[in-house]
Structure formats: structure tokens, C-alpha cells
Design goal:
The protein is mainly α. It is built from 15 helices and no strands.
Length: 384
């Protein structure tokens, strides 16, 4: 244990300064972010996304501090420092499962255009991931001074392996622990894709007419990709169940009560502080109660509707993919690890607050010029 309870400053101040940076960009710049229109959007979920990405960033700030001091990349010892990262990812999974199940349930036509759906997923995920991966490769070449330390074939194969999303990603050009460059965030995309390829079976269970070809293809892909781990199934299941919960007026009225919003918030605090890891049905149940109160627009969580929160939610994917790269460049290439490891907690915190502001600004740019053009062109519904 290196940080101790001082790490709580990262947990509270990094989201706060990120919110302030978003508010500043909205008020004092001409920068305007546009999302594809969707009458079925859940604005509170948009706001929640931003803070989840920021908390993953805070989680990695804490890991980086301990890595600089010990030269070992490991999960933080304190439960809250580890679980803010894991719980944030679990809530991302809940959002994905809920939104797609809800779309299915809202669709009157009992048929899905799978080609359009998967094309939209590729357009949503791959463009920015490609750019982030190019950044990783460039950093590798800078570290190795553009000297090839492995065969061209191995270099190309290892680069392409990063598009399987499955961790651990292979080292590139002999750079040990290349995954540190982006903090290994691509592993969660692997589980997102497993869920996407499970959708034909989910749609079938919901009464949709589903092509046998897509069912067979989905089965082959999921079985070949699945690594026998069930750790991340509960969050997706909670998201699916939530889509049914919001269709029950009695339950919605209960979850909309402010007192339940307060209780849900306390359960969230309990989950991230008591449990070291998010893995388990109890943890998913606690997070699920919090998640449902967000989905039904409980007034206790009005902060997620604030414009700055919506701004952070819009750029959350960029924040998620790019924050690890910015941290690596800052500590390894600009400051240097030998200097960074001498920083006090206060100095390190101030630096990370500055990095948070930079990440928000850069993510706004990558959203506008990389993400949004593809979203605008390929954003669509699941209908035929």
C-alpha cells in the first residue's frame, strides 16, 4: 500500500475538475458537440457514461502512481481504488445490454437488419480504436528509435492481434508490457463484441424472427471467442433485466422515489468500498439497483442531466480509449519515470488534474473529427 486514503483525492477531484473543464469548453468556446438524434435516448445514461470513463482514468492514475514507485503494474490494494475501475466497466456493460434489449422490446417489426446493426457497431468502435492503435505503434517506434527488433512478419502479426481486443495484447517490437501504453483498456471491447454477437440469440428469445445463418454465425463466433470465464455475465444480465423493469409502472414508481435514489447511492458506495472486485452476483445486484434508478430518471441524480455531464458522456469513448496513452506519454516520454517517481502525492495529484483537463479537451476534438463523422453516417436503428 503506497497511497493509502490519500488516493480518495483522485477519486473525488479528478471527476470534479473534468466536469469543470467540460463546463468551461461549453461556456467559453465555440466548440459544439452534436450527437446523432434518437428520440429513445436516455439522457441520464449519457451523463453517467462520462463519469464512468473519468473514474476509469482515476483508477489508472492510482495504478500509475504505485507503478512509478514500485515498478510493478498491479491492482490497487484498497478496495475502493480497484473497484471504481471495475464497477465503472460493469456499468458500461449494463448500459450496452439495457440499450439493445430496450431497442428490441420497442421494435414493433419482429425482424432485425443484422447487417445494418453490425455495420453501425464497427463504425462506432473501430475508427477511434484504429487511431488510438496507430498512436500506440508510433510510441513504440519512438521508444525503440524506429529500429525493428523483431521480424516484419511478427511485427505485423502482433499489431493485427490488437484487433482481437482480447487481452493480454502482445508486445510490439520488443517493448516489454506494451499494453501499458494504453493501460490495456481494449479488453472491455472484447466483451462488448461477445455481447453483440450474442444478440441474434437474445432477439430470438424475445420473439424476433432471426435468420438461421446469423444464429449459426453468432454461435460459432461466441463459442470460439469465449474464454470460459463467466465473470462478466452478471452485468450484462442486469442490463437485460432492467429493460423489462422499466416496463412495469409499479416498479418504475418505486425506483423514481428520491428516498430510493438516496438508498441506491449508499448501496453504490457500499459496493465499491466493501468489495474488492465487482465480480459476483451480489455486486451486480447492488450496482443494478443504482443503475435502474439512473434509467428511470430518479431526481436524486439530476447531476447526470447537467449539460457538462452530457458533454462528458458524449466524449466518454474518447476519454476511455485515450487516457492511458496520455498518461504513458506524460510519465514515460515527457517527464520521465525517474523524475515522476520522486513526486509527492500532492505534486502527482496536481499533475493528474492538469492531465484530466487536457484529456477532456483532446477527447472533444477526437469525438468531433473522428467519432462523429462515422456516427452521423452509420447511426441507425435495428429495424429492417
Amino acid at each position: 500500500m503506497i497511497l493509502g486514503w490519500l488516493g480518495l483525492y483522485f477519486v473525488f477531484l479528478i471527476p470534479l475538475i473534468s466536469f469543470a473543464a467540460a463546463a468551461y469548453l461549453i461556456k467559453f468556446s465555440t466548440f459544439d458537440l452534436i450527437r446523432p438524434s434518437d428520440k429513445n435516448r436516455f439522457s441520464t445514461l449519457d451523463g453517467l457514461r462520462g463519469y464512468l470513463a473519468i473514474l476509469v482514468f482515476a483508477h489508472h492514475c492510482i495504478i500509475w502512481y504505485e507503478y512509478l514507485k514500485s515498478d510493478n503494474w498491479f491492482s490497487p490494494e484498497f478496495a475502493v481504488y480497484n473497484n471504481i475501475g471495475e464497477s465503472s466497466i460493469a456499468l458500461f456493460f449494463m448500459i450496452t445490454a439495457f440499450l439493445y434489449t430496450n431497442k428490441f422490446l420497442n421494435t414493433k417489426e419482429q425482424k432485425v437488419n443484422w447487417w445494418v446493426l453490425y455495420r453501425s457497431r464497427v463504425a462506432r468502435i473501430l475508427p477511434l480504436y484504429f487511431v488510438s492503435h496507430v498512436m500506440v505503434v508510433i510510441i513504440v517506434l519512438i521508444i525503440t528509435k524506429a529500429t525493428l527488433n523483431e521480424s516484419v512478419y511478427d511485427f505485423i502479426i502482433n499489431m493485427l492481434s490488437w484487433y482481437k481486443f482480447k487481452g493480454p495484447t502482445p508486445d510490439l517490437n520488443g517493448v516489454k508490457n506494451t499494453f501499458l501504453i494504453n493501460a490495456g483498456v481494449n479488453w472491455s471491447l472484447y466483451w462488448e463484441w461477445i455481447f453483440y454477437f450474442s444478440l441474434p440469440w437474445i432477439s430470438l428469445a424475445l420473439g424476433f424472427r432471426t435468420s438461421l445463418w446469423y444464429l449459426i454465425l453468432a454461435t460459432v463466433i461466441v463459442i470460439s471467442a469465449f474464454n470460459s470465464s463467466l465473470l462478466y455475465i452478471p452485468p450484462f444480465m442486469v442490463g437485460i433485466v432492467t429493460a423489462f423493469v422499466i416496463r412495469n409502472d409499479f416498479l418504475v414508481n418505486i425506483f423514481k422515489k428520491n428516498i430510493l435514489g438516496f438508498i441506491a447511492f449508499l448501496l453504490l458506495i457500499f459496493e465499491v468500498t466493501y468489495f474488492y472486485s465487482v465480480h459476483g452476483w451480489i455486486q451486480s445486484l447492488l450496482l443494478g439497483i443504482f443503475f435502474i434508478t439512473i434509467v428511470v430518471n430518479n431526481d436524486f441524480f439530476k447531476v447526470f442531466k447537467v449539460r457538462a455531464s452530457q458533454f462528458l458522456g458524449t466524449i466518454s469513448y474518447s476519454i476511455y480509449l485515450l487516457h492511458g496513452i496520455v498518461l504513458f506519454v506524460s510519465f514515460r516520454l515527457i517527464i520521465g519515470t525517474n523524475v515522476a517517481k520522486t513526486f509527492s502525492v500532492f505534486e502527482y495529484l496536481m499533475l493528474n488534474l492538469a492531465i484530466a483537463v487536457f484529456i477532456v479537451a483532446v477527447s472533444a476534438l477526437t469525438y468531433k473529427f473522428i467519432e462523429y463523422p462515422f456516427l452521423k453516417k452509420y447511426h441507425t436503428t435495428i429495424r429492417k
